[in-house]
Amino acid sequence: MIVTTTPTVEGHQIVEYHGVVFGEVITGINFVKDFFAGIRNVVGGRSGSYEEELSNARSNAMSEMEQRAARMGANAIVGVDIDYEVLGTNNGMLMVSATGTAVTIR
Questions:
Q1: Close Cβ partners of 59 (under 8 Å, ≥ 6 residues apart)
Q2: Measuring CA to CA, how many Å separate 79 from each of 3, 4, 8, 75?
Q3: Which end of the chain is flanked by fewer CB atoms within 10 Å, N or C?
């Protein structure tokens, strides 16, 4: 499956549009990660645990989107956009959504 943020795939012709396809992941950040991220916030530096959680959520959302596109008969997804949203105020939930247009290319 070719996945791209561009509206076309260079060197390929889009022969069929299947529609908008998406993948969403909602994940919670646990107390231990929050605690160590808080320490990082005070002393400076990057929070490896949060970065890993974000990377996993993004990968899972992309994978879900690709699976849905394949079920539609697509072999590529164009115009992909990734969005991040914090849900609630203090519950530590993060939503990652991936959207794009499922297409068949030749």
A1: none
A2: 8, 6, 8, 14
A3: C
H-state helical runs in the chain: 31-43, 48-71
| Best CA proximity match to 21, nearest among 86, 85, 75, 57 | 75
- Give mean pLDDT in consecutive 10-residue pieces for the chain, a chain of 106 residues: 97 98 86 48 59 89 98 98 85 88 98
| CB of 69 closer than 8 Å to CB of 38 | no
Closest CA relative to residue 94, chosen from 55, 54, 60 = 54
Report yes or no on whether pTM surpasses 0.70: yes
* CB neighbour class for 73 (10 Å; exposed up to 12, middle 13-18, buried from 19): exposed
Q: State the Cα–Cα distance between residues 72 and 59, nearest whole angstrom.
A: 20
CB 95 within 8 A of CB 87: yes
